[in-house]
Every structure is written in C-alpha cells, then in structure tokens.
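This entry is listed as follows:

___
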Amino acid sequence: MTADSAAALLGDAVDRFCSEVTASLLEVTGVRSGELGASAADLAGDVTVEAYRIACAFIDSDGRHSDDELWPLITTFGGRFDTQLSGATPGQVRQTDLLRGAARWLDRPSDLFAILVGADHANGTEHALGYYRRAMEIAHTIVALDVITTEGELAAIERFRSTLLGRIGPAGAPRDDSPAADTAGSGGDADTASEEGAAGGSAEPLPPPRPLEELMAELDSLIGLAEVKAEVRRLTDLIRVGQLRAEHDLPVADRSNHLVFTGNPGTGKTTVARLLAEIYRTLGVVERGHLVEVDRSALVAGFVGQTAPLVTKRFDEADEGMLFIDEAYSLVRGSESDFGREAVDTLVKLVEDRRDRVVVVVAGYPDEMSAFLDVNPGLRSRFPRTVFFPDYSTDDLVGIFELLADKSGYELGDDARTRLAEVLDAVPREQGFGNGRLARNLLEETMVRHAGRVVALDEPSRDDLAVLTAEDIPDEPPGHR
C-alpha cells in the first residue's frame, strides 16, 4: 500500500472520530455553556487535537516511530492545524519532541471523554461508548500501519481499552445479564454446547452476533483469570489489526487462530473457549461461532478405517465454529496399534484443510500437552499459541462458592466464609486440583450438611434455611485425598 492510501486509512478513522465525538459533545454541552470554547469550530478543533494525541500515543507505544506510521500522521494532521508536522519528513519528526513520551497519554482519560462519561451517567446515554469505539478504531489503524504488530503495541491497546472501559462501566456501558454470563461467572468449565444443528443441520436462523464490547464485558466478569483475559484481548487485537491491513492491501503475517489451552480441570477453559468462539464470529473469523466439545471417545473408533471418518464428522459439526478437544493428550496414550494416532494424523490434515472454517482448541495438563504437540511434526506449527489457565486462589474459590450458593438461594455467614477459606487453603495445589469443580462439589456437600442441621430444628426461620454457617462447611472437599 502506498503512503497516500495509508494516510487515507488513518484519515478516514480520524474523520469518523471527529464527526461522532464533536456531535456528542455538542449535544451534551452546547457551545453556549462556554465549557469548551466559544464556537462549534473551537469544539471541533479540540476534538481534532484529541484524535492527534491518540494517534501519537500509539505510534510512541513501541518506541519505534517508523516511517510507515509517521507519513500517514504527517499527511493526516499536517494540514488540519498549525503544527510542526506541516511539510515535515519522518526523520525531522523523530528529531523533535512531538512523540516523545506520548504513550503516557493512554493512561489517563481525557477531559472531553470525562464530560461524555458524566453526561451518560446523568442521562442514560451512550456517548462515551461511541468515543471508545472510534478511539479504538484509530488505535487499531495506527497499529495496522506496521508490517509486524509488536507486543508493545498490543499492550498499549489493552492499557487504553482498560482506561476507557474502566470509566465507562459505572456510566452504563452494556453489560450482559444473560444466563450464559451467569454460568461463565462461576469460573468453572461449563457444560458443552449442544452439537445439534452445529453444522447447519438446524433450519433456525442465527441470531445476530453479539457486540464485541458485550463479549469483552462478559469476559471481564469471570472471576480471576487476569492473564487469560489479557491473552484473549491480545488475540482479538491481532485479528482486528490483520483485518485492517488486509482491507487496504497491506501484507498480513500468516497467523493461525488455533490454540492450546493448558491448566488443571475447572479453571474455565470451556467457558473461555465458548466466549472466544463468539468473539471470532463477531470479528468475522467464523460464520456461526458455536462450540463443539469432544474428547478421545468422540474421535477414536475401535476398528480399522473408522477413526478418520469420525474425526471428519466432528469437524463437520464444528463447521464455521470452534472444535474444543479436551484432554487431547489422551489421543496418543495408547499402544502403537491404538487408533488414537490415526486421529492425530487426521486432525493435523483437517486443521490445515479447514483453517478458514474451523478454529480448533486442544486442552489439557501443561506437561502432557507439550508432549502431545511433539507427537506429530505438524502439530506444534499449527498450534503456535498456548494460553495457560492458572489455579484459582483461595479468594477466587470463595468468590466462586458464593456465586454458586447465591444462585441456589443460599448465603454465607461470616464464620462460614472464614471456615471455607481455611478448608480451601489446606487443599494442595497439584496436578488434578479441581478449582471451580472443587468449589461446586464443596457447596453441594455443604448444602447436605446444612439440610441435616436445619431439619432437626422445630420451626426453622428464613435465616436458618438460607444462611450457611461454619459447622455446615465440611473439613475437606468431598472425594479429596
């Protein structure tokens, strides 16, 4: 792409930001208030400066200040207001202080943004969300100008997103209240989505894709998993930047969307996979965005010639969605005559043949999954990115326990909360640690003990029936050794 077309790409994003944000500020303040200046022209100038600062901040985010970034910046803003950019070259800009330290601007919401947030909070509007979307468009456009997207740029996008959404949330940004979000909030691996109709067998029309902000808000609502959430956001940003480059005939690095999830059971791998499948649909990576979860029993047959068709069938079911293979390492744990290796060979072929139609996530314990990727020379190259799901902390598990208890109509007394933390602290964090499932099993046993205590009361009160006490908490989780 030429410098002119790159400048047009940035210019379009800046125009959309300036148009929408200026209109929003005029609506919520009016120029007569004198809050932002004496005229609409002054206000439009303030917004243009805002767009300029956002662009400069992302150019500075990795410290490179490349020609591919600077030429569009010079062309886009050089004629919009009187700055040192007018008629400059990238080399001359690098010798000035125009970009030095500009990345710091990403860490503090601007005054204009704060005005929109305040108005939304007072009036129930969504002007700040419009600012957020247009500002992120500038961010992704700047990052797309570089041939290689750096980790520094991805981290900057995450910082900026967190800065804005952290302020938007209290002002009424969309937050999903659906049952799916409630399930995800438990932090445990949710039940798999139904495979019926997954490959187009159902005539029911698909609902529209959910907005990206809504999906990200649901991701943020999950208990714990800070690094997992950050990795999902990085993946999302990489996809969006790649799409922008492709739309404007820029070279795009060949990246695989397939992933490895590692970690103990109950750490939310299935829940995150389901959300990620929806995110991929919203971004246009896949058309349906459903999740098909399978394990060894759904892929490996008992007779010669049956395994490859079985694996193909699962790919058909996951067509235009995500195939989630739990405990994938179990495919290669049999003998040399076992058909699991045939399943792996077929998997490698289909992962490549259908890479534009099916996203595959393989999951399991970290060491076992590393060994699994070495079984076939084609596996590791097709699954280049690993997302590690750490064990939940005691505080996280208490939060999951309380969330599940609340859904069942119970609440924790203070003594029970203290006792619960002591019991969870005593459980060794080793391979096989149950995490969310452990919290769920512990709650079920607690409810049994509570029932045994309350049934002996002559006339139990509402609190007797609803409040869990320390004596209801078992000494250790059921089934724990």
Residues 32-38, 170-203 have pLDDT under 50 and may be disordered.
